[in-house]
Design a protein that fits this description.
The chain is mainly α. The protein is 41% helix and 0% strand. The longest helix has 19 residues.
Length: 185
Amino acid sequence: MDRRRKRWGVLVTVGVALAVLQGGASVAQLADPPLGWDMWEPAPPAQSHRPDSLEAVSPWRMARHQAFIRDGVPAPYQGARNPLIRTPANVDPGRALYGAHCAACHDPTGMGGGDAGNALYPSPALLAQLVRTPQGVDAYLFWAINEGGVPFGTQMPAFKDKLSEQQIWQIVTFMRAGFPAASAN
């Protein structure tokens, strides 16, 4: 038996024992973890499966990030830069587009807590944190929104056939502005 399976067996045994002793669950309840729960995620199944930081995520959730670090963005997106400046004329349409196409999963603040995102695994990206990281460059964001997450095992749809380049850049501009509320201008 390899080390990973042995470790999993110990974790399950200890977890079942603790849950039964604390009266929180029966062995039968623990047999099938909730849909979308991954044992490597930090949150227990009774809570949200969304971690609080980019560092505390499963390898599946980081597939695009790892591909970007290893290979950069695909050729069609190399050198992509947001042509829009951060003005209300660009942020306001970006807010509306984000609200219509992104907020249901990523939530209005970009922290992945949208109602539709609660049922997804891996959970939606923490965009408010991503835009502040070294990999959150314009080319990366443009690529991710255009192509969606299917190549990386996520359910994020591709928007290249639904939104214009201008609209995608407006969403990026809104995110770069810090996800301001409608009354913040």
